[in-house]
Design brief:
Strand content: under 5%
Distance between the termini: 48 Å
CATH architecture: Up-down Bundle
Number of helices: 6
CATH topology: Four Helix Bundle (Hemerythrin (Met), subunit A)
Shape: elongated
Radius of gyration: 22 Å
Number of domains: 1
Helix content: over 70%
């Protein structure tokens, strides 16, 4: 047993370690569904520009940017889901898991299409998540 381990055992025996908890892994204010929404708005804008263009090279670029932004949307959604929301939030909002599952699936679908209706659906799903998010901040 190392000296450091022995010292820690001795210190633990002198006083009970303090239990601490936090509702998020960083101070409040770090998380915001707006990040996902901004990326999803970029996805929609790329789709609209793609559909309005006749330039094949421009369409390729719009598709690449749309796919990147769709992936970033998924990333921001997963950060919220895995780092911010806790079991108590799920108890209070039982549809939360379904909302995240659907939104991330829709972000994936947006990578495969230029249908603006898909982007509108994604924005709507993010708005539903944001509504719950802000309710948890009260």
């Amino acid at each position: 047993m190392s000296l450091l381990t022995r010292i820690n055992i001795l210190l633990d025996s002198l006083d009970t370690p303090l239990n601490v908890s936090a509702h998020c892994d960083l101070p409040c204010g770090v998380y915001d569904p707006a990040q996902a929404r901004i990326e999803a708005q970029s996805v929609k804008a790329c789709m609209e520009k793609y559909n309005a263009s006749e330039d094949a090279d421009f369409k390729v670029r719009a598709t690449l940017i749309k796919e990147e932004r769709s992936e970033l949307t998924k990333h921001h959604l997963w950060v919220l889901w895995t780092d911010y929301f806790k079991p108590a939030h799920l108890e209070a909002h039982p549809n939360l898991h379904e909302l995240f599952w659907s939104a991330t699936k829709t972000a994936g679908e947006a990578k495969k299409t230029n249908d603006v209706a898909v982007a509108d659906k994604l924005l709507s799903e993010i708005d539903a998540i944001a509504e719950i998010f802000w309710a948890t901040k009260k």
